[in-house]
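Sorry to interrupt, but I need a hand with the structure work. Could you write out one complete protein record for me, on any chain you like? Just paste the record in under my message, thanks.

. . .
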Amino acid sequence: MSQDFLPVFKALRPLFAQHADKCVVLCDEPFRYYLGTHEVRAKDGYRTDFGGVEINKNYVSAHLMPIYIHPEMSTSLSPGLKRRMQGKSCFNFKKPDVILLKELDCLIKLGISQFENDGRI
């Protein structure tokens, strides 16, 4: 894990942390922060993840499960944010980008709204 990515983590963490009152904090560690929903899956007893951020070896990952469950959320992504998307619900960053962070913040807020409408949070 690279300390070089700490500024990226510190820029991304508040985007999720501002919604902690609506979710359940699953992990709050120096290099990893995750939120879950109030919904507990009957099958395995785990909470449905909402999303979070963590420092990895080569980048900082921001995970956002609402975009996986509601793929229509990704139709309006800018080309810049789309380039950082890995898989269906993960965005990788190597440096903070103010414009992309604002867009991700809006996407997280939309995810909160989607999960509220779904009754998950």
